[in-house]
Amino acid sequence: xxxxxxxLGAKNLGIVxxxxxxxxxxxxxxxxxxxEKLHGTEINFVSVLGSxxxxxxxxxxxxxxxxxxxxxxxxxxxxxxxxxxERRKVMxxxxxxxxxxxxxxxxxxxxxxxxxxAILNAGVKIGNxxxxxxxxxxxxxxxxxxxxxxxxxxxxxxxxxxxxxxxxGAGATIVSGVKVGKxxxxxxxxxxxxxxxxGETLFxxxxxxxxx
Length: 212
Fold this sequence. Notes:
alpha/beta
């Protein structure tokens, strides 16, 4: 990547994204965040210059800068992605840590965050705008849709299918061949041994459906 990056979101995930880009010696032009208390501050010497809808900075995206959306709030993430597509006709770039392992035989979309020590093995297919936390493992032929979050140290077994909007907590294990339906939630440390229906929340070892 030749162009610097504007990061939309200056809180926790924004700081992670900054470190990821810096791991590749990619310049971050600035942060944009809707929290006015952050405006004019610096994070690791990178300034928070305005809001996420500030045209003065958005006009740079697609011309002189790339963009990355850094929030783990899926509703807000979708809103910002749609804004970039509508107003700038661009998709966010990927943020892939230099210490992540990505097989040369995988397929990946746009706007994904892959943190340090994550492993994506051969045959993995990962869509758009996903968050793969540090140390997570996606084994061969795992299929990940869009706006999925995989927690730190989680293991996604081979031939697992994870549909859009799924949240997998830290240290969870999803065994080989399981399908996890849209917007399901898997609790931290859980072991999922059977298919999960859309919208369900599971927790435990073995993971059981819980009421929310």
